[in-house]
Design a protein that fits this description.
Layout: H1 2-18, E1 25-27, E2 31-43, E3 48-53, E4 58-62, E5 78-92, E6 100-108, E7 113-130, E8 135-139, E9 145-149, E10 164-177
Antiparallel strand pairs: 1-5, 2-3, 2-5, 3-4, 5-10, 6-7, 7-8, 7-10, 8-9
Length: about 180
């Protein structure tokens, strides 16, 4: 799930920075990603599995404990994992303490599905602005680094190297079998 979460986190940040009109606080539209395929491997102890999609990609998924019939899953089962990403980006005022938190919650779904919600909030620093390449590079906790092309050039007039940005995203995962 760490790889999947990293991919979704990166996608959330990409969306945040590609939107026109960077504001002090901006909530972006929810983006939904669905992964469907065949269970290729299962680790019952870690509640993790790898799904092979129709195009041959492998996606790692952590299965919430709320999925009561996880122990019934087997290699070869068809599953669908749906992620909804909700993102809020905020330019952090000088002197405000950095944040780095993650929380998980579960909700019940239908007979063959459950939802896990992960909420991540972190402060990242702008470490480079390249107007020629239209990109901004960030660095966050635990050596997290990311660079992104920026579509709206007015963003460059609103931020500078050294600015802090709080990124809050919630990702919910619903897993369906069958």
């Amino acid at each position: 799930m760490k790889r999947g979460t990293t991919m979704l986190t990166t996608l959330a940040l990409v969306l945040a920075l590609s939107q026109p009109g960077w504001a002090q606080v901006k909530q972006l539209p929810t983006q939904t990603t669905t992964i469907a395929g065949t269970v290729e491997t299962i680790d019952q102890g870690k509640r993790a599995m790898n799904i092979k999609t129709a195009d041959g990609q492998f996606v790692a998924v952590n299965v919430p404990e709320s999925v009561k019939r996880f122990n019934e899953l087997k290699v070869g089962d068809m599953v669908k994992a749906t992620y909804n990403n909700n993102v809020i980006v905020r330019v952090k005022p000088p002197g405000e303490p950095a944040v780095d938190t993650a929380d998980t919650d579960y909700s019940k779904g239908g007979t063959n599905s459950r939802t896990q919600v992960m909420i991540r909030r972190m402060t990242a620093s702008i470490v480079d602005i390249d107007k020629g390449a239209s990109s901004i590079s960030f660095e966050g906790p635990n050596g997290w680094k990311y660079s992104r092309r920026v579509v709206d050039p007015t963003v460059f007039d609103q931020v500078k190297v050294g600015d802090k940005v709080d990124i809050t995203w919630s990702t919910d995962l619903t897993l369906s079998v069958g």
